[in-house]
Amino acid sequence: MQNFELYNPTNLVFGKGQIAKLKELVPQNAKVLLAYGGGSIFKNGIYDQVIKALTGFEIVEFGGIEPNPRYETLMKAVTVIKEKKLDFILAVGGGSVIDGVKFIAAAVHFDGNPMEILHKRMQIKANAMPFGTVLTLPATGSEMNSGAVVTINETQEKLSFGGSALFPKFSICDPTVIASLPKKQIQNGVIDAFTHVLEQYLTFKQDAYLQDRIAEGILHTLIEVGPKVVDNPTDYALASNYMWSCTMALNGLIQKGVSTDWATHMIGHELTALYEIDHARTLAIIAPNLYKVMFATKKEKLAQFGERIFGLQGDTETVAKQAIEKMTDFFHTMGMQTKLSENTANYQDTANFIVKRFDERGWKGLGEKQNITLEKVREIVELSY
Ligand code: NZQ
Ligand code: ZN
């Protein structure tokens, strides 16, 4: 196991009725920017719960943060904060609103052009505005991590950044919020979280037995509850286990002491930037093909995944290959279409585009062994057509 530091200061407040605790969690006398997305919170009662809990606080609302949040929109919120002299941000939404708020929090006090935060993929370690979140869509883990992804509309670039100053001060996770989610979004959430675990787990054997067992526990739980929660989102046992699994998949715990991959996400982000395919759906397109192309590097861990998650038996090569098939079957069970051509019509030049972009960015060796070269990226994307 590699040396590591574990730092996670987010106060996670989990369970039914916890939104009412906002009045204790938001700092007294705070002037709050209440940030949200396209308006789902008005239809499902979450807005009303938040406003009730924040009675007495000075609040300025900022709505309209898009799925795959846009730099251009977020900069408008930065202006509002400066004009109204606000000092705390509350994100109410899914990963997009929370990621958007992380950018706003970093940009408000940024010395220079905030676009640099994205282009230089900066790590913000100080001077971020404090913020909390009310999670409305379990998926990304953004509620308990310090990373975020923001899209620049003008250049169609989807870029990640982060840093220790960008952990939420608190996050409220009330599993009853998922009752209003469209099925498609629950499917996305399960697959996003599943793939987060894969990116940290499907590498090579690294003598991190506990990390492996925790990762496998999350995968098992997502397989158990995922298909059921789509049809029964008001079942509290299913909803709470789904929500907690998503947080645990990307709150930093299972990546400690191990080398991780993330190439599926890096390629997937390009598919969203190019074709606006939902984040999770891009992962379902890329992941199985990445595991096929990188088979030689990953087969031992793929075989462990096949044995422990799907109960497969046999020699390493066979079990590893079958494990990729089982993974793809699970993606299909969760409503994913795993070919790029099933998700967009104009895919023919995608591999060239992505390889060129990665080349320009100097991303010539991705993955846990930096052996996912530009040629491998091309192969993975072409295999995904
Ligand atoms: O905008 P509103 O009206 O709120 O509607 C949203 C949006 O249309 C809707 N929704 C959310 N909660 C709802 C609801 N509808 C009904 N009832 C509710 N309770 O769902 C739609 C999608 O929301 P979005 O926030 O975009 O989804 P998700 O949480 O999947 O976030 C995706 C974004 O997070 C990034 C992705 O790249 C993408 O931009 N990621 C962030 C990560 C991180 N910070 O660690 C890691 C991930 O890998 C990912 O990259
Ligand atoms: Zn993801």
From TrEMBL:
<keyword id="KW-0560">Oxidoreductase</keyword>
<feature type="domain" description="Alcohol dehydrogenase iron-type/glycerol dehydrogenase GldA">
    <location>
        <begin position="9"/>
        <end position="175"/>
    </location>
</feature>
<dbReference type="GO" id="GO:0005829">
    <property type="term" value="C:cytosol"/>
</dbReference>
<dbReference type="Pfam" id="PF00465">
    <property type="entry name" value="Fe-ADH"/>
</dbReference>
<comment type="similarity">
    <text>Belongs to the iron-containing alcohol dehydrogenase family.</text>
</comment>
<dbReference type="Pfam" id="PF25137">
    <property type="entry name" value="ADH_Fe_C"/>
</dbReference>
<protein>
    <submittedName>
        <fullName>NADH-dependent alcohol dehydrogenase</fullName>
    </submittedName>
</protein>
<dbReference type="GO" id="GO:0046872">
    <property type="term" value="F:metal ion binding"/>
</dbReference>
<dbReference type="InterPro" id="IPR056798">
    <property type="entry name" value="ADH_Fe_C"/>
</dbReference>
<dbReference type="GO" id="GO:0008106">
    <property type="term" value="F:alcohol dehydrogenase (NADP+) activity"/>
</dbReference>
<dbReference type="InterPro" id="IPR018211">
    <property type="entry name" value="ADH_Fe_CS"/>
</dbReference>
<dbReference type="InterPro" id="IPR044731">
    <property type="entry name" value="BDH-like"/>
</dbReference>
<dbReference type="GO" id="GO:1990362">
    <property type="term" value="F:butanol dehydrogenase (NAD+) activity"/>
</dbReference>
<dbReference type="InterPro" id="IPR001670">
    <property type="entry name" value="ADH_Fe/GldA"/>
</dbReference>
<dbReference type="GO" id="GO:1990002">
    <property type="term" value="F:methylglyoxal reductase (NADPH) (acetol producing) activity"/>
</dbReference>
<feature type="domain" description="Fe-containing alcohol dehydrogenase-like C-terminal">
    <location>
        <begin position="189"/>
        <end position="381"/>
    </location>
</feature>
